[in-house]
Amino acid sequence: MTPFDIGAIAILVLVLLILIGMPIGIGMLATSFTAVAFIRNETVSVRMMTQVANDSLEEYLFAVVPLFVLMGLLVTVSGVGKDTFDVFQKLLNRITAGLGVATVFANAVFAAITGISIASATVFSRIAVPEMRRHGYTNRFATGVVAGSSVLGMMIPPSLLMIVYAVLAEQSVGRMFLAGVGPGILLALAFTVTILILATTRRSFVFESGDEAAYEDIGLMEIVIKAVPILSLMVLVLGGLYGGFLNPTEAGAAGAFGALVIALLRRSLDRQTFWRLLVETGQITVSVLFLILAATFFSRMLALSGVPRELAEFFLSGDIGPYGFLFAYIVLIVALGCLIDSISIMLIVLPIALPVADAAGLDLIWFGVITVISVEIGLLTPPFGLSVYTIKSAMDDPDLKVGEIFRGAVPFIIAMLVTLLIIILIPSIATWLARL
Predict the structure, then answer these.
(1) What PANTHER family does this protein's entry cite (predicted)?
(2) Rounded-to-integer distance, Cα 94 and Cα 234, Å
(3) Euclidean distance between CA atoms 198 and 175, whole angstroms
């Protein structure tokens, strides 16, 4: 067999191993090691794996992963999410479907200080859904809004998926964060427009009964008190990062320290909780770094086999062209999103797709934004839909059906597809800030 044949078989074997339940990191290491052994020999395979372990994890940059994860977890336990929702609820409760819009904007702000979609889904399913239900919104709409807007956690920086993409694509994490600002705002606006259209044209989808419950009256001073911690963290992390005062790792450290101070001042953090958060941070970090190690080995195996080169020639020398490749790439990612999680999709697909995108002359920063949005659609699509199942688990309501949440999320999937098309047609939405 030729190296190309071995590489192609390795990809098929990896997909099969994942489908039967093998952890993706172990599957990647096993298939990559075996494929390199067949292409060269066992000695080269062992040496390549040890070299990858050293090269892929020695970077100072990787300290950003546990710092942003810890910041997100501290923000979650400190009650900042509820305060964010309360502020936007007060500001937007007079407009049609105001609680839905408030949920979107609260999620957008929460995303700017956490970067984890699942954290957003967990927090707002417990805060926003009961409040919307109390005001006469349907279960389907309330959970759909939370599921849809939770994806902002991976688009608006800081974002864990942006970090993973930057590492795999060998791009600047800071530039990837900057590239996510415009598309993140556009996506939040698209969700808002979707809610207003639904509230106007399909009121039965949004409202179950009259909006009779009284809104909690929050005074101006209380709004300021609730908003100060949120704004402080945003200024500390995003201001330091975009102002050039801090690199991504330093911004993560500053954000984690700021979130720790807020949690301590609010007395929402005892020793046991803090230890649990540290352990959880370590578990998430080790998982992400192990997956990056495995993906790096997989990428080098593919380069050795020549699969990316052959695919680039196939897409770029015929009638398909760069945008034909881009369309096939998006369809593949959305399809995979129905089966496996976001990071796994990126780790499998990017080592194959990045060389093709680079050969096609596509801007890799722009390509990264498209990748993240496409991957995030998978959080809402059945049968996997991780955000949907997270909401179902967090709500702990036996009468709430998973299918109802999926149906509620459909309008937001459409909004994401429209946003994706706009960014493809107008790349500067993603690239202008990153080029400054």
Answers:
(1) C4-DICARBOXYLATE TRAP TRANSPORTER LARGE PERMEASE PROTEIN DCTM, SIALIC ACID TRAP TRANSPORTER PERMEASE PROTEIN SIAT-RELATED
(2) 27
(3) 35
Contact yes or no for 291/347 (Cβ under 8 A): yes
Please check the confidence at residue 422 and state whether its pLDDT lies above 90. Answer: yes
Spatial CA neighbour of 36 closest among 241, 287, 305: 305
Distance CA 159, CA 220 (A): 32
3-state class (DSSP) for residue 336: helix
CA 299 to chain centre: 22
Neighbouring CB atoms inside 10 A of 244's CB total: 8
**Cα separations in angstroms, 379 against 85, 123, 158, 306, 401:** 22, 16, 18, 32, 17
pLDDT tens digits, one per residue of 9-29 = 888 888 788 778 788 788 888
pLDDT tens readout for residues 302-345: 888 887 777 777 777 767 778 888 888 888 888 877 767 777 78
State pLDDT tens for residues 80-92: 777 777 777 777 7
Instruction: Using the structure block, give the residue that is written with the tokens 């039967």.
Output: 20
Which among 430, 429, 428 has a CA at the least distance from the CA of 175? 430
SS3 137: strand
Return the H-helix or E-strand segment holding 234. Answer: helix 220-234
Sign of CA dihedral 138, 394, 124, 419: negative
Number of H helices, E strands in the chain: 22, 0
Is the pLDDT confidence value at 218 over 60?
Answer: yes
Q: Determine the Cα–Cα distance for residues 183 and 419; give it in Å rounded to an integer.
A: 8
Q: What is the DSSP string of 153-220?
A: GGTSSS-HHHHHHHHHHT--HHHHHHHHHHHHHHHHHHHHHHHHHHHHH-HHHHBSS---SPPPP--H
Q: Copy the structure tokens of residue 297.
A: 């080995």
Q: Is 41 helix (H, G, I), strand (E, B) or coil?
A: coil
Alpha-carbon distance of 192 to 322, in angstroms, equals 32
Count Cα neighbours of 387 within 13 Å in the Cβ-side half-sphere. Answer: 36
Return the bridge partners of 296, or none.
none
Distance (Å, whole) CA 147 – CA 128: 11
Percent of the chain that is helix, strand, coil (3-state, to 5): 80, 0, 20
Amino acid at 251: A
- Rounded distance between C-alpha atoms, residue 275 and residue 268, angstroms: 13
What residue type is 28 in one-letter code?
M
158 preceded by a cis bond (ω within 30 of 0): yes
Q: Is the pLDDT of residue 420 over 90?
A: yes
